[in-house]
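Run log, item B.
One chain of 381 residues. Sequence copied directly from the ordering sheet:
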Amino acid sequence: MGGTREPALVGSPLLPDGFKVPVSRFVNPSTRMRQLLDEEPFLFGPGVYDPFGAQLVMYYGFKAVYFSGYSFAIGHLGTTDMDLYGGVEIADAARRTVSALRKFQLTMAVGDPEKGIAPRHLDIPPVIVDMDGGYGNIFNVQRTTELYVNAGVAAAHIEDQVLPKRCGHIGGKALIPVSEMLGKLRMARSVADDLGNRDFVVIARTDGLSAVDAPESARGIELAIDRGLRYLDSGIPDLLWCEFPTSEREPVERFSQEIHKRFPEARFAFNWSSSFKWYKDPNPITFEELGRMGVKFIFITLGAQHANGYGLSQLLQAMSAGQQQGYIELQRKEFETGTDLPTRSHHHFSGVPYHHLVGKMYDAARLGREFVEELPEDRVV
């Protein structure tokens, strides 16, 4: 989860003298993810769909970012998760997100010397990205994996659904044969290795638990367990993910227990899904409990989408009722004493002080503190 330990710091040619970034900046994201998987009881990655959300996750010290396919479908296409976007689209969004986190690290490392805002040294969390069913055959997997690896994505998951796929919590799912799924996993692994990133984390997901159609005769939890064992038999997946249809504990416990009988060191990924009404669950399964079951990566797929929907709806309702007063009240909350909301100054969050400092360092035109208007701080951000 969030961390407070001050990281080891080094300089960067993209910073003025005297400013530093965490040394982890220069560690491959996949390598860093593997280190965290070994060191942490579990990794938690809030689900986001754009660079802005990922930067907030990084600001608050989370050690992983989950780039959700369903969130991407809603946030970028305004539609649902039923295979309505292509691999190149989500790969480009992932590329922009990884790039934004690297830039955000630099801007936070500068702070704002003129306003007395101290540098903040943030590790870049590894980004784990949805690859759905691979967007086609093994050659679509090949292309998408290449785009992910070259973008600096740390890990990706592939599921065993027939294409066009659908969200794991939408009915009517069907499964491809095990051999086809293994081919996709093998291709992802081979592409990453060929590109020199042998640490790229491959996650195999099965939707066997609630699939209505599959080549096998088994259904339900028996099918999910069988699929999981056969995927691990290949030696390819680093993590195994079973998509569960409800928040019930028993299927989660049984799946992990049965897998561990043959693979005691198996590691799992778990979707603490936004599709479940956790607030009505009298005893919701905790992250710590999941960690003890061998779950090493936990994520909430649509966390950012629901938070954005809630927060923006609150503002829009307030402005509908009170016009400008609705926004004034938002600002009152942003600027309350003791709050830590980096976005209340969009100039600082987006890196204006960094651009002035580095612009001056590189002799860029009209970039430097001498071009900054002197305005009263109690009136402007």
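Observations after the first pass:
- The mean pLDDT is 93.
- The chain is about 45% helix and 10% strand.
Flagged for discussion on Thursday.
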